[in-house]
Amino acid sequence: MRNILMIATGGTIASVPSDGGLIPALTGEDIINFVPKLKDICSITAIEIMNIDSSNISPENFLQIVETIEKNYDLYDGFVITHGTDTMAYSSSFLSNAINNLNKPIVLTGSQLPVKAQNTDALKNIYDAFLTASSGAGGVFLVFHGDIHLGSCVKKIYSEDFTGFLSINSDTAGKIVNNSIRWNIRHKTYTESIVFSKEICENIFVLKIIPTLKPDIINTLVNIGYKGIIIEGYGAGGVPTIKEKDFIPAIKYAIKNGVAVVCITQCLYNGVHLDKYPMGVLAEKSGAISAKNMTLENTLAKLMIGLGKNMDNKTLKEYIEN
Q1: Which of 20, 121, 136, 281 is 20 to 30 A away from residue 102, measured at CA?
Q2: Reported pTM
């Protein structure tokens, strides 16, 4: 029987009603006691490292989770992290990039309704998460509504529907049917030692291009100290390039001043293709980096870690695009 560490962080799954709305209050032990069938699949140790609404998650909390896993990595066969759904994809993306050569499962899950609520989705999600964590499959996964998503390719799509999340530009890693896992991927086994990255940069801004936006906002971001700018462009990743709305000089200004510029798309699927239209070509020639098929959440995680390691623009480009 596998030994699994449950790391409770709060979120809706741990919430109870209050005068001000739902607030996280239940412990990890409280949560697993609602699913007595867990004792048939694994041995569980539960700890709480925070008990917050996931809207309050911060890079400091990302590192807190990484450090908890690092401290306990040799003691357990797998890890389940209960987490609020709003920022779970940010946390799963960060863990996917901050922990390398991973040969054990790290599984994030939560719920759209509290574990104590009537007809809650929490009970299935919890069981499925521990089933996945007991599988021995290495990697970071987000388990929700019977789907096993790769932690680096997932996004919250629904605010209330029990589906919750979708895999973006990637098939799901697997599916749980009748309490059995059907994997869609082959699992890698690493011979190198596990590596935990904990040097990060937080000075990153996400800039969504809209018709009313003017390029001087980029100059302002550079001048107040941001080290990375993720530009959420139109379609294939384009930005305006005409008259007073020409963003190319501002992008050049940012890169000249040592600020990394990464282009992603506002579209949910198919990714960035900076070589498709003149505005994308100009941005890339100016030194902008393509996020390709990555989600915003994964792009942010990679940029945080890359800038935290003080990568130059060439090295950062290779790291993000490969």
Answers
A1: 121
A2: 0.96
